[in-house]
Amino acid sequence: MGADKKPGSIVHLGAGAVSGVTSCVLLQPFDLVKTRLQQQQGSAGGGRGIGSITKTVQNIILSDGTRGLWRGTVPSLIRNAPGTSLYFYFLNHTKGFCLATERRLTRDPKRAKISATGNMIIGASSRAFAGFLLMPGTVLKVQYESSLYRYTGILGAVNEIWHKGGMRGFFIGAVPTAIRDAPYAGLYLLLYEAIKSQERAIAQRKNVLLAETTVTMVAGVAAGLAASYITQPFDMVKTRMQLCPQEYRTVLQSFGKIFSEESFHGFFRGISLRVLRKGIQASLVFTLYEWVLRTSTRKNNSRSSSSETEPSAKLKA
Predict the structure, then answer these.
(1) Count of other CB atoms within 10 angstroms of residue 104
(2) How confident is the model at residue 35 (pLDDT cuts 50, 70, 90)?
(3) What are the start-end ranges of the E strands in 104-233?
């Protein structure tokens, strides 16, 4: 039988969509509560600790019922399903380009692994491209989750954003989003690939058989936790700029305003929720994504194997 057939672009898009939709629906309450915590301004606003999280959850349930925790799921799906698909699509194509470039630079045509720097560049550029294209969905999602805006429908929300800011209104916070997403994705992919390699090396040394799902889940959680902490201040600035664009006008002015009014701790409102959500999401997304790719590869190889045996059977007959 020939070499394994690699999944095509459509499979990468589909795998990204499946993982994006699943993680989005399951983890929406984390995003909603994080947004509510981050919209609180001033040192009296709280926003840190289990007490603040519990109180926020209670207020949401009292106001909107348990279903209120999933408010904003539709705009989240509009943002995350195509966003995750595009990210993995760009990731797949950028990996191929980066590996070919490194082979030329190192003059090693058999090179099979991308360097750590290459993984950072691949992750950052793929996330930046996908994030910019889906920026209108990000603005819609954040405003829909906030209690500062009481949108009753997607079309009404789109009309109001357009009425207030025109096309520019859909790209509020694009700079801090890019500054947050590109380093996050770059660091994440770098750590993810490094942790997977370490897990496999340790398992091989100790002669332990590790399931591929376990490897990807552990690497996803660890990489997601670390990258989330490092990029949290930019997430805070992005949310404030998208919720209160009149008060938070530019990236530097927003950083200064948050620091002067809420000190350094102000940048870490909702950090526990973001870290927990990102860790679970990253693990879930990459595990599902790689599972879909493996399943597709097995099916392709099975079809290829059966098509190769049929002619030989006819010749023997």
Answers:
(1) 11
(2) confident
(3) none
Q: What is the DSSP string of 158-195?
A: HHHHHHHHHHHHTTTTHHHHHHHHHHHHHHHHHHHHHH
Classify residue 210 as exposed, middle or buried by CB count within 10 Å of its CB (0-12, 13-18, 19+).
middle
Distance of CA 248 to the CA centre of its chain: 25
Global pTM value: 0.62
Radius of gyration over alpha carbons of the chain, in Å?
Answer: 22
- DSSP E strands: which ranges in the chain? none
Model pLDDT for residues 114-128, shown as the tens digit of each residue: 888 888 888 888 888
Tokens of 56: 């926020």
Residue pointed to by tokens 């399951």: 26
CA–CA separation, 62 vs 246, rounded Å?
30
Checking if the pLDDT of 313 tops 70, the result is no
Q: What is the DSSP string of 263-303?
A: TGGGGGTTHHHHHHHHHHHHHHHHHHHHHHHHHHHHHHHHH
For 78, residues 6+ apart whose C-beta sits below 8 A from its C-beta are 137, 140, 141, 154
H or E segment to which residue 44 belongs: none
Angle CA 275–277–278, to nearest 5: 65
The torsion defined by the Cα of 283, 235, 39 and 285, in degrees rounded to 10, comes to -20
